[in-house]
Amino acid sequence: MKQAIAILTGGGPAPGMNTVVGSISKTFLKNGFRVIGLHQGYTGLFNKNPRTTDIDFMLADDIFNRGGSFLKMSRFKPTDKDFQENFNLKFFVDNNVKLLVTVGGDDTASTANRIAKFLTEKQYPIANIHVPKTIDNDLPLPAGSPTFGFQSAQAQGTVIATTVYEDARTSENWFVVAAMGRSAGHLAFGIGTACHYPMIIIPEMFNKTEITVDKIVNMVVSSIIKRKIMGVNYGVAMISEGVFHALSDEEIKKSGIHFSYDEHGHPELGKVSKAHIFNELLEKKLKTLGIKVKSRPVEIGYEVRCQTPTAYDLVYCSLLGLGVYKLFSEGKTGCMVSVDPVGEVSPLYLKDLQDPVTGKIPPRLVNPEGNRVQAVVNDILHYITPEDYEAAKKYVADPETYDFKKILNW
User: Fold this and answer.
1) Tell me: the pLDDT tens digits for 10-50?
2) Are residues 142 and 162 in the same domain?
3) What span, in angstroms and rounded, lies between the C-alpha atoms of 390 and 399?
4) Looking at the structure, do residues 64 and 192 belong to the same domain, yes or no?
5) Which phi and psi angles does 199 have, rounded to 5°?
6) Do 343 and 387 belong to one domain?
C-alpha cells in the first residue's frame, strides 16, 4: 500500500492555511505519497468514522492561494480519557499513514505535543510535525520569525484602522479600536504602530502593576487630554482584547460584562464586542469628568482571519510546507517546523518548548522594555507627562492620575 500522510487544521482560521496545506500536499504527492485531509481538527483522530478528503494536485493547486481553510476546523481538545479509549489508531494502520501534520496555534500545538508523547509511549511508528499558525503571533518561534497569518492579518487590519483614523480626522471624533490577541498584544501593537495611533494598550504593558479597568480607561483619557492640550480634537485608541484575560474576576465583574467560557477555559471574547465595552466605559468616565468628546467603537478580529494571504504569507507558508517534507525526510518528529528570515528550515521540539508542569506551549509575548515598544511609547503615543500637569488642570483636577507612565508604574 502507498505510504500516506494526514493533515488537520485546528483552532481558528488564519491567512495561509490553504497555502500550507497545498504546499505540503504538492511536495508529498511529488514524492509518491498519498495525502489525506482530516476535517474538523482533532475530532477525526478520536472518531471511528473521520471525515476525510484525499488531496490531489488539482485540489492542492486550486486552494493554495485562497483565504480560509478548505479543511474544516475545530477547537476540539481531547481529554486523557479520549487518548486511552478513543484514539483512532486503526485510521493510521488501515491507510498506512506515516506522518501526521497538525496546523494550528497554541492549543493545537499543545495537543500535538500530547499526541507526540502518546505515540512515543505506545511505540506507534507515526511521525508528528506541527506548523505554527495564529494571527496573534504568540507561539515561541525564534526572534524575527512570525507565526504564519500574522503579517496578512496585520496588513489588512492596518487598512481598516487607517480608514478609522481618517474618519477621526474628518469628523473630529475619537474611536476605540479593539484588536484580536488572546494573550499577547502583537496584532494590536503592530496595527496601532502602523497607523500612528496616539494610544495603544496591550496586556504586556502592565508588567509592573495589576491591570484594572480604571487604568485602561485612564490611559485613553490621558491621550484625549494630551491631544486637547496640543490643539488636536480627534484620535484613536487601540486596545488589545487580551487585556480582558489579564483582568481578575473581580475586575471583570466591575466592567459589567458577563462572559461565557469555551472548552479551554478562555472567555468567549468573540461573543461580545470588546470595542463596545471599552467605549461605553470611556464615555461614562468622560461624562463624569465633564469632558465633551464623541467616541465610537470599532472591532478588528474576524474581519482579518479569512482574507486572502499577502505575498509575505504566500511565500512564508510555502516554505513552511516544503519544510515539513524536509524535516520528515530527515526523520524528525514531535516538533514544530521553523523557517528563519533567510529561509533555513529547522525543527523546534515541542518537548523543549512546553511548560514543565502543565505541558502546554507558553505564549510569546510582546517585550514592553524592548527598543521597538519603547520607541513607539516615547515618540508616537500621546499622553500626559509631568510637564503637562498645569495645562491638564483645565480638564481634570488631578492630572497625575492620568500620567501614562505613573499608571503603569514605569
Assistant:
1) 989 999 999 999 999 999 999 999 999 999 999 989 988 99
2) no
3) 8
4) no
5) -145, 130
6) no
Question: Do the domain assignments include residue 362?
Answer: no
Bridge partners of 348, per DSSP, are 336
pLDDT one-digit tens code per residue, 237-283? 999 998 887 777 777 777 766 667 776 666 665 677 889 989 999 99
pLDDT at 191 over 90: yes
361: DSSP letter = P
C-beta atoms surrounding 56 within 10 Å? 14
In the numeric block, the cell 502583537 is attached to 186
The secondary structure element, H or E, covering residue 94 is helix 89-94
Number of domains in the chain: 2
- Give the torsion sign (CA, 348, 353, 358, 363): negative
Catalytic residue numbers? Answer: 136
151, 100, 150: which is closest to 130 by C-alpha? Answer: 100
Q: In what order do the strands lie in the sheet with 335-339?
A: 52-54, 34-38, 4-9, 97-104, 127-132, 335-339, 345-349
- Please indicate, yes or no, whether residues 202 and 130 belong to a single structural domain of this protein: no
Alpha carbons 380 and 83: distance in angstroms, whole number? 50
* Interacting residues of 89 by C-beta distance below 8 A, sequence separation 6+: 124
Say if CB 137 and CB 182 are below 8 A apart. no
pLDDT, tens digit, for every residue of 369-408? Answer: 999 999 999 999 999 999 999 999 999 999 999 999 999 9
Q: Is residue 361 a part of any domain in this protein?
A: no
CB of 209 within 8 A of CB of 408? yes
Strands (E) located in 227-281: 235-240
pLDDT over threshold 80, residue 134: yes
Q: With contact defined as beta carbons under 8 Å apart, do 132 and 147 qualify?
A: yes
- The CA distance from 178 to 191, in Å, is 11
Please check whether residues 330 and 225 belong to one and the same domain: no
Tell me, what's the pLDDT at 367?
Answer: 95
Work out whether strand 52-54 and strand 34-38 pair parallel, antiparallel, or are unpaired: antiparallel
Give yes or no: residues 118 and 17 share one domain. Answer: yes
Q: What is the dihedral of CA 139, 140, 146, 148, to 10 degrees?
A: -40
Q: Tens of pLDDT along 328-353?
A: 999 998 889 999 999 999 999 877 88
Q: Domain range holding 32?
A: 4-148+309-353
Asked if 225 contacts 289 with a C-beta cutoff of 8 angstroms, the reply is: no
